[in-house]
Amino acid sequence: MELRLRVSEANVDDLASLYRWLRDDPDVAQEAELSLGTAENQPGAMGWSLELINALIATAFSGASTVVASIALWQQNRSTPSTVRIERGNNTVEVSAPDLPEARRLAEELLAEGERSETSGDCTPSDAL
Length: 129
Prior knowledge:
The chain is of the alpha+beta class. It contains four helices and five strands, in the order βααββαββα. The protein has helices spanning 13-24, 26-31, 60-76, 100-120, and strands at 2-7, 32-38, 51-57, 84-88, 91-95. A five-stranded antiparallel beta sheet has the order 2-3-1-4-5. β4 and β5 (91-95) form a beta hairpin.
């Protein structure tokens, strides 16, 4: 499973900070392969950096939960947390507050939306926070 992580264009320097944070997290290192990349400009992406972090996750639920929890912890350590957009296919959630239980709920929502769209063929974006 692939997750794509973006930050607001206004906070593009935060992408490098988030990448280093995730790369240095031993739990994330066990669950995901990270790389920096760029994306095509897509509808709904206005205001979001075209540079992104790709996270290839081997085990869907635990991997996504680990990555999203690490993002929430990264936000807790920042004086002004940036909103992080997490995309899986056409499904999107936004983590904008350093709230670990909320981040885990968002990971579950992202996975559930992805599973529903993979089985039904529908892709309904879901924005949260």
